[in-house]
Amino acid sequence: MNYNEYKYVIELDRVPYAVALLESLYGNTDPYPHGTVNSLYYDSLSLAMYEQCVGGNEFKAKYRVRWYDGGLYQAQIKDKDMYGIGKLKSRLPYQPNTAIADLPTYWHMLPLTEGERTAMDIRARGTRMGPVYSVAHIRYHRRRYRSFDFRMNIDTNIEIESTGKHPMGVVGKQRIPLAVLEIKTTQDRPKLPFLGALKLRQDSFSKYGLGMQLLLSEPDALNKYLTVR
Fold first, then answer.
1. CA of 9: how far to CAs of 12, 124, 159, 189, 204, in Å?
2. Res 148: pLDDT
3. Do the beta carbons of residue 203 and residue 151 sit within 8 Å?
4. Which one, of 78, 72, 114, lies nearest residue 92 by Cα?
5. How many independent structural domains does the chain possess?
6. pTM value?
7. What percent of the chain has pLDDT over 70?
8. Does residue 155 sit within a domain?
9. Cα(40)–Cα(75) distance, integer angstroms
10. In whole angstroms, what is the distance from residue 203 CA to residue 219 CA?
11. Range(s) of the domain holding residue 89
């Protein structure tokens, strides 16, 4: 099922207020209220998915392997266009060795069971980008809230580190000096009263896109986000 995703950048000095407000309204509404999220991002030889993120493309795709505190490991493909977001997830049949020196290929991490329909779909859709290579590990702390159709997250302590495995030679480690509120819903626009209190501006924020800009030393990467007030 497709859904809509709305993102709001939060400068770090405003995070305590945002967290306190959502905790007062929606605290303990999600079965997993907080935890660490890890994602390994894969990209094509030409970094096509990174270029989609920062170029304002109508269509964006992301290939990643994600895991959580509870030990759930998933291979994911995420498609985003003007009609919403679609996501394919396939649970990995084993815990991969996530040491940077030993990262497997994206396709080798998928379940090998022929009857796994989601894995087969991921394989089929993934071929349009050609070979993909691990490029970055992103880690952050996530607080989760729910209200009716709305799923809300506040992501803080966002870090990105190169895997050192991409042929383009992307290297380094950076901390993103921002937090982000994400709202996911099947509705066209989130009508939530706390948005007015927080006075946040909706933005097309991408952890992968901004993180890669910082790793690639792109000038002025943060400028558009540090003037949100």
1. 9, 34, 16, 17, 9
2. 87
3. no
4. 72
5. 1
6. 0.86
7. 77
8. yes
9. 9
10. 19
11. 4-215
Greatest Cα pair distance in the chain: 51
Structure-model confidence comparison of residues 192 and 76, the more confident one: 192
Radius of gyration of the chain from Cα atoms?
A: 17
| Per-residue pLDDT reduced to its tens digit, 173-187 | 999 999 999 999 988
Beta-carbon neighbour count of residue 167 at 10 Å?
11
The enclosing H or E element of 196 equals: helix 193-198
Which CA distances in Å does 126 have to 37, 107, 117, 123, 227? 23, 9, 14, 5, 37
Helix or strand (DSSP H, E) at 16: helix 15-26
CATH value at residue 186: 3.20.100.30
For residue 122, is it within any domain?
Answer: yes
Q: What is the torsional sign of CA 175, 205, 20, 72?
A: negative
Would you state the structure tokens that stand for residue 192, as one six-digit string?
């939530």
Q: Strand 150-162 to strand 132-147: parallel, antiparallel, or no bridges (unpaired)?
A: antiparallel
User: For residue 182, is it within any domain?
Assistant: yes
Rounded CA gap, 185 and 28, in Å? 19
- The sign of the dihedral angle between the CA atoms of 219, 158, 5, 63 is positive
Of 170, 156, 161, 180, the residue nearest 218 (C-alpha)? 170
User: Of all helices (H) and strands (E), which one includes residue 140?
Assistant: strand 132-147
Distances (CA, A) of 220 to 27, 178, 216: 36, 15, 12
Q: Is residue 229 part of a domain?
A: no
Each residue's pLDDT tens digit, 97-117: 554 445 566 666 655 555 566
